Amino acid sequence: MYKPVPTSNGTARGTSGFFISDPRHPGKIYLVTARHVVFHPDKEPNELYQHRYSGQRRTNVLLFGDAAIEKHITDIESEIDGKHIIIEQLKKRLKGAEQVDEEDAEAERNQVQLQLKEAREAIVALENYVVLSPPIGFGVGEERFTEDWAVIEIDSSKVDSTNFVGNAIDLGTTTPVDKFTAWMHPHHANPPSFEYPGNRLLEFYGTIPDKDIWNPSPKTLDHDNDPCIMVMKRGHASDLTDQSGQMSMEVAVLPRNSESGAFSKPGDSSSAVVDGKGRIAGLLTGGAGADSEAFDCTYVTSANFLIQRMSEHGLVTNLSPSLNA
């Protein structure tokens, strides 16, 4: 799991969604996340953002893994701030070079220009950047979904086989295997739909068809004998949780029972929500509830809608990205 942190829009944080690739651009990996995580709704104009050419100003995003998040957010943000301070100081030196004799001025300018280049490259090297994000919209398309997504191009120089496993949820060690398996099988009459992976990584496999979310199979019941699809996610704020899902204009994810606790909390935005087979239900975009620290109902935008909209914006989406294709 990775957390995107915008470097130009304050310090809003969320949880990454899922990775994709485009077969027309071999070797490139993209991350799909929520727009409001990388473009602060109160600080940025709500308009289409596209990065079309190399000279265009970037909207940069930092990504952090679980073990590194707390330490490296502070360290790298401080490093970037330090580079900006250096750049401002070098600009002053460059201006001061105009007041000395020509030979010394030329030497000073050359030295400063080299240091400026190194400082700016150091900043860019730390960051991924947004390539596409439509404005946040409501009631979009035939199904009238909420549109709140952005696509980030991952810095290929920072990704290799040691730190990229593709789309998967690490089920972790905090919840015992038998307990989590029982959570995913809330009714004794349900057919098996979840098998705990030996390496703890539940790999993503396709999407849940919208028709199945609209009309869950009567063979899969919750504790109240209502048809449901059991889903899970791992978020920055609430870690690993599972609940049952139903759909209105959004996919509504409800608590498993009265004692299971909230499925999401503030800070979980853009988590990928999947079922026990690893099929993606969608992207977590928000929630509602009496408690401001947790949500009784979590809202998820359909993955199929997201894929359709990305296609309409020119992206060919592959949900099984690799570093070599």
Summed up, what is this model?
24% of the residues lie in helices and 25% in strands. With 325 residues, the chain is of the alpha+beta class.
Which properties best describe this structure?
17 strands; alpha+beta; 325 residues; 7-stranded antiparallel sheet; 6-stranded antiparallel β-barrel
Description:
With 325 residues, the chain is an alpha+beta fold. It has six helices and 17 strands. It has helices at 35-38, 69-96, 102-125, 177-183, 210-214, 303-312, and strands at 2-6, 18-20, 30-33, 49-50, 60-65, 128-133, 137-140, 145-147, 150-153, 168-170, 201-203, 229-235, 239-247, 251-254, 272-275, 280-288, 297-302. Strands 1, 2, 3, 4, 5, 6 and 9 form a seven-stranded antiparallel beta sheet that branches. A six-stranded antiparallel beta barrel has the order 12-13-14-17-16-15. A two-stranded antiparallel sheet has the order 7-8. Strand 12 and strand 13 (239-247) form a beta hairpin. Helix 2 (69-96) packs antiparallel against helix 3. The longest helix has 28 residues, at 69-96. It is elongated and about 85 Å long. Residues 7-14, 66-73 and 122-126 have low confidence and may be disordered.
